[in-house]
Here is the input.
Amino acid sequence: MAEKKIKVVTENRKARHDYFIEETYEAGIALTGTEVKSLRAGRANLQDSFARVENNEVFLYNMHISPYEQGNRFNHDPKRSRKLLLHKSEIRRLIGKTREKGLTLVPLKVYFNPRGKAKLELALARGKKLYDKREDMAARDANREIARAIRDKNRE
Here is the structure.
């Protein structure tokens, strides 16, 4: 039996550079039909998007889903706010955590699970300072140099 894989629509790679990821959650997204069709075509962007808890509900802001090309006059607004579907216990936990200073909700990626449902990976994150980003870049460069040295040593 063939195992279905998840189909990643878009990723927010900059989020891992700008934030320390503390926890991740999988959330459903309340979408209209034309939005789902645009997502299946891979026409979405998570750049500058964020989530916020309001009235015991979680909403996603600034996620851009391009209008569906074969859509009609009832096509969706590309940057509308979208409701995220989470369990009540997860929402309560997020309310408590986001009240802490420095913690925010950042979307990491949008994908279709094996059942064909659109999902969003939501992260509870803490912002990095400039010196943290420099440390990460230095560590990455050092690891790259070590790997290169090992690879060259094995070639000899």
